[in-house]
Structure formats: structure tokens, C-alpha cells
Design brief:
The protein is an all-alpha fold. It is about 70% helix and about 0% strand. It contains ten helices and no strands.
Length: about 190
Amino acid sequence: MPPKAKITKDMVIAAAFEIARETGAENINARTVAKKLNCSTQPVMYHFATIEELKRAAYEKTGEYHTEYLMSIPETQGGIMLGIGLNYIRFAVEEPELFRFLFQSGYAVENSLLEMINSEELVPVISAMQKQMDMNMEQTKEVFVTLSMFVHGYASIIANNSFEYDEKLITTYLKRVYKGAVLAIQEEVK
């Protein structure tokens, strides 16, 4: 009799991530993950003492996936600022369950927008924006806060099926918000 396939911790996390992606994080439990892996619940519970721990691990994987998604900007996008903003909104369109898991489930460690801006996960995003904008880090973060409020609002509306995605319209308004935020920073410096 051949040995049974070993179910690794990474396999359990990947299965939980796929469940969150397909049907929502609220459907992550030992049975659904075991079914996805075609095994009993024992390997799932071996790697995670509680389902809460498993959901947190799936949340971290979702955050990593989201960061990669944001930073995959097509050359034709019109710059990193516009690209990141549009990718954020596209993520809500293409991955609504993951968007809700990341931003509407209560699993975020940060308690405020200012804490989020200073988080490790945003370092690559803010750094890339800073290079393009030729501003200091604090100014870049100020522009980011303004943009993130607009972009997150749009993405939330779309992820919750209340608004259709219109890239041309979103691009127009995103450019206006960006220009306005940069102008405001420049006026404050004067």
C-alpha cells in the first residue's frame, strides 16, 4: 500500500485562500479545507490548533497576493500612481471575495489609516510612488492618504455590487484626485 500524501501547512493555507477567494472567508472551516484537499480534517487541525489561526494565515496570504497584484502595472498604464490606483479597484472587480476579506472582515491588524500607511506591507508601494513623485516620504504618504480614500471608496462600492466598473471614468477622476493632492502638498510647502 503506498504511503498517504503528506498534507503540508502551506497546502492547508493555500486551500483556505482558495475557499476565501471562491466563496468568502466566512466559509473557511476544517471541513471545507479538508474537502478542498481531499483529506480528513485531521491534517488541517494538526497544522492549526484553531480555525481562527488558519483564517489569519489565509489573510496573510491574501495580503501578499494583493501586494503582488497592485505592483503588476502594465507599461501602458500611465505611471505608477495611476497603475496602483486602478489595480486596487480592479482587484475589487476581479477578486471581490478577497477584497472583502482584506478590507471588510475585521482581520486587519491596523486600527487606522495612519497605522496602515506605516505598515511593512505598504513599503514597496509607497517607495515606488515616492520615486515617481520626487517628493519626500512624508509628502508621498500625504498624497497616498488622499488617493487611498478615493480608491478604497470606489473599490468598496464595486466589490459590494453597487456600482459598475468604468475604467475610463475612474481614470479621469483618479487623475484629478492625484493632481489635487499633489497641488495641495505643493501649496503647503510654499
